[in-house]
Design brief:
Among the domains are: about 220 residues, Rossmann fold (3-Layer(aba) Sandwich); about 140 residues, Immunoglobulin-like (Sandwich), CATH 2.60.40.10; about 140 residues, Immunoglobulins (Immunoglobulin-like), CATH 2.60.40; about 280 residues, no CATH class. Helix content is about 35%, strand content about 25%. It has 30 helices and 41 strands. Strands 19, 21, 23, 25, 30, 35, 37, 38 and 39 form a nine-stranded antiparallel β-sheet that branches. Strands 9, 20, 22, 24, 26 and 27 form a six-stranded mixed β-sheet that branches. The N and C termini lie far apart (about 125 Å). About 5% of the residues have low confidence.
């Protein structure tokens, strides 16, 4: 038998020993004869011949020896019952030895290239099976050794009795086997001498054939070697009584067999045994098998001749002779061979090493017979390749290894195939043999099937396919766990975890992973499942500490999509149960070393809030207001502004912590407190939080109050809490600094700046001004609604300064366009309600200084004094907004300014909408426009329009005009709403107000006329300023000293009486106008920085016209503004494409136009082109026809008689709306060829 093939595919020799020989071996404490002979195999350098008479040499030749009585007993047992007992027996052996095996493996460095103990035991149990099988003949005996000793009373009769004994084997066992007679002659104790023994041998040869041998033993005990090897594990016999159950098998330990005395056999005895085994193989067994192979091969070749159907077809086409002579057959050829004989031919050829013949016969059996079991041997005989997996798959199908619950015999047969492939194919791993083992395991949950999957995992690990190895180890652990072998299950899971966390080698530059900030390795999708199963096994086996450590490692950030939603909840629940058990058994000290692998606090989002709990956006608003104050005060000298956002001694401030739950499960944090590092002498008080619940993936802001009793610098270093109210956790409130890349060394590596630390500067206690909202309306506002609130400012007794406050300034944000009505008339130099002078810039309003003399009757605000301040604001746009009010004040004899803050939230609903249109008027002799204004009432209350006004530099409502109102209702369709006129009524009137019901649309018309030459001159100067500024932008002129637009006088015209509070109304219309222009700059010229864009255009352009409607709705009073109208002849100063190109070309070097092509300044050129395009399409470069033409004819049809001439009067009225240009017009009459028209 070749050493390249598995041991189970070697010749099977059965031994039938006489009782006297059995007693002799037992008395001498020697193994029984089959085990004794097995110890001298394999044989080295054994030669055999093929059918072509070519010699084949076997380096190592195996022979299997077994007791005939054991084989006969095994054949009598039911096949399924024996297969079931075999699987249970293997499982029991592994179950009882697994703990020791695992401990031995884990005490040493892991070596996946070495065969594991559990797989070795399964393999030996499988290969040690000697029971013949119906589907294959490997275990069918090829020889029978009849053995006796000269100690018998009549040795010759004993041999005759053995030869005449009936072989009690099933009929399907091949009866073709060699009979050999062995006589053992113990020379010291036998009653026969040497001559008598030799005579006995001769008599046996004459009577039973030449296959006989006399083995002489001296039994002198002079040998110092022990060549005996233990027998392979053998299935215990079936139970014979009710008390003996299969659950109590004989667990034969390989190292604990029959004690073999080293002094019984001498060296000569050992040599005689070895010589016998060799001579038996070379002189009897192999020649006998060679003769059978030659004979069977001739019969096989005879069946491979041309089939009869092919010969009949030939005769049909070519005819036949009158008489046909049959082909002579060989006299040695027997009758046609059967499938069983061909199978034995292939097996004998395999024993002899004639692999070519064996392959051909096995392939024939696979193709032409129903004996599909031949497919399992072909992968062992053919050259390893990927194509062999087809044979393996077919072999498993032939074993009927299909379905969810295959039979025990099918499982055992598949196990044998897998063991043979794993041992007999040296390159099995390279051709995907791990998949073969998985196929062989199937869906079975027995221990051997699980270990098959585990062996497949080990093969994958050797090959480097770590993910597949991980999955196989997990599958094997799952099956082993169902069998109750915890130690081996945990070992497999640990191997799977280690392989899963092994970094995957990728052929990519390390810079790629650094750029992607990808520091993860392995396969995150399955690692949590592995660790979770491992933790549960530790907990069930009593290792609560190890289970807690495993469960806590599962609480990490999830990067992969494979994780299911309920995983974190399960992990936390198991962790909590294990931790409670550990604390109850080992005390609180057992968890002192546990560290939570995740962080709930986000240190980089930590904020210090003083006074009010503002958001980050509010903080930016306060910073901007404080910066505006410093800019305002800069001409007066240096400003020492102490913000109210800074912590002061003896005043509480809040530490805002951002707590984010990275888990997909709800958690509870209890006993939250801060760790403060403060110098000696600074006492502080911390407000702790008893319990905080965080929903899955929730981010929540926590505010913890902190009060310091004296000034200084403190450091907030850590936050401590108890996770799930059990595990104490401390998180640092520091975060990594920015990455450094100033030097080449920093750019090539990873260098970071110092960590950021939360430090708080506690200032000495200064002045204090308490601001509270004394009166306000919190109801939602309508668009444009005017609302007033009352603030109460108090110099408090507690916390205030002893010195009185001398100066108070108020600064307000843009939202709601807030103003102080009590302070509006202080600097008003233009009290007129029709026209007012305007600086015409986009500068924001300066801070308002409160007149304490006017408000309180005293120039100082003493300790404990207070006063009320009225605030007016407007619903400027829909949405939720906050009015930010910053009060800057100082106390007497102090140059330090202090601040106080107030925030008023309000919500605006879009219930009103106003739209205005203007077109040239045809009903006036002079240049005029007809203004159309539409008001849409989408609210639920009536709206009353009480006043209609316009503001512009040149244009205004004519004093003699009257307003026409039209009312239309809304029609709702099924899917959407549109405005449709369902009723239309015209009622000219010169008086207001006008009511608009809910769901109705109101329209008004008025006539616009120019205000005079002086206003036109102002408009021309304003337009020239705008064009000049835009030219400077296009030419790339660097900004020099600021150029202010020329001041103008704005015409404020009304259709009725002027507003009662003109100053308040004018404030809102100017604030609305400024917001509209700033919005235009942001949307139309986004490439220009905002701080420069505000200096480019004026507040009122030369052609701008705004519409103001004053309305009432119940107790609501407000204003509606319509912006964006441009009237008059519009001449875009930069409209000409050539002008724009010239301006861009002038910015180039030497005034040369750059050629198109690649340039290092291509991006700059593209930005210039985009900027020019934005300016070209902006409102300030708009252009419209300035000529209005009205044609008036007779208005009736006239019948012309042929041959007569008729004159028709047609009046053309042309109006030039341009404020700066004279227009020339030409009348061009189009005519047909046969009609002559003349003016």
């Amino acid at each position: 038998m070749s050493s390249t093939l598995p041991f189970s595919l070697s010749p099977h020799v059965v031994v039938l020993a006489s009782p006297d020989l059995v007693e002799l071996l037992r008395e001498k404490k020697l193994p029984q004869l089959p085990d004794l002979l097995r110890s001298f195999t394999p044989l080295e350098s054994i030669s055999a011949r093929t059918t072509a008479l070519a010699a084949t040499t076997h380096d190592r030749y195996f022979l299997r020896f077994s007791d005939l009585t054991e084989v006969e007993s095994a054949c009598k047992e039911d096949e399924e019952a024996r297969a079931s007992r075999t699987l249970d027996w293997m499982s029991s052996r592994v179950s009882h030895r697994a703990a020791a095996w695992v401990q031995e493996v884990e005490e040493r460095p892991l070596n996946l290239g070495k065969e594991m103990k559990w797989w070795e035991d399964i393999r030996l149990c499988t290969e040690g099976d000697i029971t013949p099988n119906r589907t294959e003949g490997w275990n069918h005996p090829v020889a029978l050794i009849v053995a006796t000793s000269t100690m018998a009373a009549n040795p010759l009769q004993s041999i005759s009795n053995l030869h005449s004994r009936t072989i009690d084997l099933p009929p399907w066992v091949d009866p073709t086997f060699l009979k050999f007679t062995l006589i053992i002659h113990p020379m010291t104790s036998s009653p026969l001498n040497m001559d008598q023994s030799q005579a006995l041998l001769n008599a046996v040869k004459k009577q039973h054939g030449a296959h006989a041998h006399l083995m002489c033993w001296s039994l002198s005990g002079s040998s110092n070697t022990n060549p005996f090897i233990p027998r392979p594990p053998q299935l215990p016999p079936p139970p014979n009584s009710v008390t003996e159950t299969p659950g109590d098998p004989q667990f034969d330990n390989l190292a604990k067999e029959v004690e073999i005395g080293s002094t019984v056999l001498s060296d000569d005895d050992l040599q005689s045994i070895s010589r016998f085994v060799r001579e038996f193989a070379t002189q009897s067994l192999i020649p006998w098998m060679e003769r059978n192979v030659i004979e069977w091969n001739e019969a096989y070749v005879a069946t491979r001749r041309l089939p009869s159907r092919f010969l009949s077809t030939t005769r049909r086409f070519f005819g036949t002779s009158g008489s046909s002579t049959p082909a002579p057959s060989s006299p040695s050829s027997p009758a046609p061979s059967t499938d069983t004989q061909q199978r034995r031919l292939a097996e004998f050829a395999t024993f002899l090493g004639d692999l070519k013949l064996a392959t051909a016969v096995f392939d024939t059996l696979r193709k032409e017979t129903s004996n599909t079991s031949a497919a399992d041997v072909l992968p062992l005989l053919l050259t390893p390749s990927k194509a062999l997996e087809t044979y393996a798959h077919n072999a498993l199908i032939g074993a009927r290894f299909v379905g969810r619950d295959p039979s025990p015999s099918s499982q055992l047969r598949a196990l044998k195939y897998a063991v043979r492939w794993e041992r007999g194919i040296s390159e099995l791993n390279t051709i995907g043999g791990d998949q073969w083992l998985v196929w062989a395991a199937g869906a079975s949950e027995e221990v051997p099937a699980a270990l098959l999957v585990g062996q497949a995992a080990q093969m994958c690990a050797r090959k480097g396919t770590l993910r597949r190895a991980t999955l196989c180890y997990v599958a094997a652990a799952d099956r082993i766990d169902k069998c109750g072998i915890k130690s081996l299950t945990m070992h497999f899971l640990r191997l799977a975890r280690d392989l899963c966390n092994t970094p995957v080698q990728k052929l990519l530059s390390p810079a790629f992973f650094e750029a992607e900030d990808n520091t993860r390795c392995g396969f995150d999708g399955i690692s949590s499942g592995i660790d979770h199963a491992l933790g549960r096994l530790k907990y069930t086996t009593g290792d609560a500490g190890g289970a807690v450590k495993t469960f806590i490692s599962l609480l990490h950030l999830t990067y992969t999509k494979e994780a299911t939603k309920g995983d974190d909840e399960t992990h936390i629940e198991d962790f909590k149960v294990a931790l409670e058990h550990l604390i109850s058994t080992s005390g609180q000290e057992a968890v002192s070393q546990l560290a939570l692998p995740i962080r709930f606090c986000q240190p980089h989002k930590t904020q210090i809030r003083v006074g009010t709990l503002d958001s980050d956006e509010d903080a930016r608003i306060w910073d901007q207001l404080e910066q505006d104050w410093k800019t305002y005060w800069k001409p007066n000298g240096q400003c020492d502004l102490r913000s109210s956002g800074l912590a002061q001694a003896k005043e509480m401030f809040w530490v805002e912590l951002s707590m984010h739950n990275p888990l997909d499960a709800e958690v509870v944090l209890s006993d939250l407190t801060l760790t403060i590092d403060a110098p000696e002498g600074i006492d502080f008080t911390i407000e702790s939080l008893s319990e905080v619940g965080l929903r899955p993936k929730e981010t929540r802001l926590l505010h913890m109050g902190l009060t310091c009793q004296s000034p200084g610098t403190i450091t907030i270093s850590h936050i401590t809490y108890r996770f799930l109210s059990l595990l104490p956790v401390t998180e640092p409130l520091t975060w990594r600094g920015a990455r450094l890349h100033a030097t080449p060394q920093q750019r090539q590596g990873k260098s970071y700046g110092p960590d950021h630390i939360v430090r708080v500067q506690i200032l000495p206690r200064g002045a204090r001004l308490d601001v509270e909202l004394a009166e306000a309306d919190s109801r939602p506002m309508r668009l444009g609604e005017l609302r007033k609130a009352i603030m109460r400012l108090e110099h408090p007794v507690v916390g205030g300064s002893i010195e009185p406050l001398t100066d108070i300034w108020v600064m307000m944000g843009e939202a709601g366009w807030p103003t102080l009505p009590q302070c509006l008339g202080q600097n008003d130099t233009s009290p007129s309600t029709n026209d007012f002078d305007l600086r015409n810039t986009l500068d924001p309003l300066n801070p308002t200084k409160l007149s304490l003399e006017q408000l309180t009757g005293s120039s100082l605000l003493g300790l404990g004094k207070h006063f009320d301040l009225q605030l007016a604001y407007c619903g400027h746009e829909p949405g939720l907004h906050d009015i930010s009010i910053l009060l800057v004040f100082r106390k007497e004899n102090d140059e330090t300014f202090y601040t106080a803050r107030m925030r008023i939230p309000f919500h605006v609903e879009k219930s009103l909408q106003v739209v205005a249109h203007a077109r040239p008027s045809v009903n006036t002799k002079d240049c005029a426009y007809t203004l159309m204004v539409e008001v849409d009432n989408a609210g639920a209350q009536d709206v009353q329009i009480s006043r209609f006004s316009t503001t512009s530099i040149v244009w205004g409502i004519q004093d003699s005009t009257f307003t026409k109102w039209y009312v239309a209702c809304l029609s709702l369709h099924s899917d959407f709403s549109v405005h449709q006129t369902c009723t239309f009524s015209e009622s000219p009137s010169t008086s207001l107000p006008l009511d608009i019901a809910p769901g109705q649309l109101g329209r008004t018309r008025a006539t616009l006329a120019p205000r005079g030459k002086d206003r036109i001159e102002q408009a021309v100067k304003t337009h020239a300023f705008t064009i000049r500024q835009l030219h400077n932008i296009l030419e790339g002129t660097s900004p020099g000293p600021r150029e202010i637009p020329p001041s103008v006088q704005v015409s404020w015209a009304h259709t009725g009486s002027p507003p009662k509070d003109a100053a308040l109304t004018r404030h809102f219309l100017l604030a609305s106008r400024r917001a509209h222009v700033l919005k235009q700059l942001r949307t139309q010229l986004p490439l220009i920085p905002p701080n420069r864009a505000e200096n480019l255009v004026p507040l009122f352009g030369a052609h701008d016209l705004d519409v103001i409607l004053e309305y009432n709705s119940g107790d609501i009073h407000g204003f509606l503004f319509a912006h964006g109208l441009q009237v008059g002849g519009l001449h875009g100063g930069l409209m000409d494409e050539q002008d724009l190109d010239d301006s861009q070309g002038a910015s180039s070097t030497d005034g040369k136009k750059k050629k198109k092509g690649r340039s290092m300044y291509a991006e700059t050129e593209r930005e210039r082109e985009m900027l020019a395009s934005q300016i070209r399409g902006s409102t300030w470069n708009a252009s419209e026809p300035c000529i209005s033409v009205h044609v008036c004819g007779p208005g009736t049809e006239m019948v012309m008689q042929e041959g007569k001439t008729s004159t028709i009067p047609v009046t053309f009225t042309l109006r030039n709306f341009s404020i700066s240009r004279t227009v020339k017009c030409m009348l061009d009459l189009k005519q047909e060829p046969d009609i002559l028209l003349s003016p």
